[in-house]
Design goal:
about 170 residues, about 30% helix, 6 strands, alpha+beta
């Protein structure tokens, strides 16, 4: 099952940190920007929550469709708009789906992660995210590590189910 593989791959990456701290230098950017898209070759590393999700899907055995590039996405707003246009949205996320966050609830897309499981259906859930903090202190959307976090639905701007809704 691809969903199990996505979760297993994401869990395997937990604890990965960018180095040096606050640099965005991390293997997900190395893979995405150097291996995945020649336009970015030798460019400064960028925020990496989206490249983390793309990396996990790819190495779990299901490369994301073209969103920003042929191997997925780096810019979360692109995923948000493409998911709306392609009808990849879902109100009932399951393990392996993608979660797009708006932590300030100001209609600005802040972050992305991989849905793990419901704690209280429709209210709280766990999510594995790249470039977040281990806890409530620190940046939730540029925290420098891969962690499993407890999140609230009120912070979600969109749940995305590409696995079941992608059509060639």
């Amino acid at each position: 099952m691809i969903r199990d593989s996505i979760i297993a791959m994401a869990e395997q990456e937990m604890g990965t940190l960018e180095s040096p701290p606050e640099s965005n230098v991390v293997k997900y950017n190395d893979w995405y920007y150097i291996e995945g898209h020649t336009y970015f070759k030798n460019s400064k590393p960028f925020a990496w929550c989206g490249t983390f999700v793309s990396y996990v899907y790819h190495f779990a055995g299901w490369t994301l469709p073209y969103i920003d590039t042929e191997i997925g996405f780096h810019y979360v707003p692109t995923l948000y708009h493409k998911a709306k246009a392609k009808r990849w949205e879902t109100d009932n996320p399951i393990k392996g789906d993608i979660v797009i966050f708006d932590f300030k609830q100001d209609k600005v897309i802040d972050h992305v992660g991989i849905f793990h499981s419901w704690l209280e259906k429709g209210k709280t859930f766990t999510c594995i995210e790249g470039n977040t903090s281990a806890g409530e202190k620190g940046s939730q959307s540029n925290g420098g590590g891969v962690f499993k976090r407890v999140r609230n639905v009120r912070d979600v701007i969109q749940f995305v189910n590409i696995l079941d809704n992608y059509k060639l």
